[in-house]
Design goal:
Layout: E1 14-17, H1 21-33, E2 38-41, H2 44-53, E3 58-62, H3 70-80, E4 87-92, H4 97-105, E5 110-113, H5 118-148, H6 160-177, E6 181-188, H7 191-198, H8 200-217, E7 224-227, E8 232-238, H9 242-258, E9 261-263, E10 266-268, E11 272-278, H10 290-306, E12 312-316
Amino acid sequence: MMHAPSSSPPGYPVLIVEDNPPLCRLLQETLGEAGHASVCVGSGPQALAQLEGEYFPIVVTDLAIPGMDGLDLCRTIRARFQNHYIYIIVLTARDSQEDLLEGLEAGADEYLVKPVGAAELRARLKIARRILALEQSLKKSLEEFKSLSVIDALTGFFNRRYLVEHLPQEIKRAVRYGRPLSILLFDFDHFKDVNDRFGHLVGDEVLRQCASCVGEALRQDLDWAVRYGGEEFLVVLPETPLEGALVVAERLRRCFAERDILTTAGALRVTASFGVASLPRMAPQQRLPMETLIECADRRLYEAKSEGRNCIKGHQL
């Protein structure tokens, strides 16, 4: 099924459903004068097939069409194409109040009585464009809100909500296809001292710049990072066995330890301790809770801190 594009030009493409060729040509001329490209089909099933393959945000359909009537077509469109809105204009020779209500209840947005004048149709198309523009604006706002709801504002990494939703999927995929998967859990050593001595704003500067180290070390569109707590982070490494995860952890450890972080309080350096955990070899039907993998990494992180910090401990479950 085709998805709506993020934006469309003012003249949205229109699908005409009409089995009368002269009327179809007349409608296409009127639509063309109003700036709309159009395609005409002669039956309800043809209209549905066309909508499956192309994006038509506006449908103009006669009430009496072969295959199914216009009201059945309206109902089917509303049930089948819910990922984006389709504005439906029904044309009919019947003009009773009962017919109008039946059309609106079936999902039509406009119910025009034939013969329809060109000026009236153009006016209805302007309304359709306004409604579709509002719908796209609302969808964009909702998508932006959803994105913000899973992003940590300070680092730009994902937050724990995203982790809870997506790490189980990564584990399930890795187990099903017999692929490796590792995670890194790390936090910055004695970071409380940074906050206590220089203030939380400087601490935020340090975390923000350290986040750039993480971004440089990870594979784009495959690995992903989460701000797990205040100065604690978790990195998910799909397609990565324990040996590879240890290499990534060492790259990050050195990046943190060797970089001068320029802050309003001057240049600072911080170190981090790492716990690494990797999936065991499992049969496809087996299940491993996300918490088990994270607990393993957390135990290794505790070992790293106990043995002097600024080091890495890893384990394959």
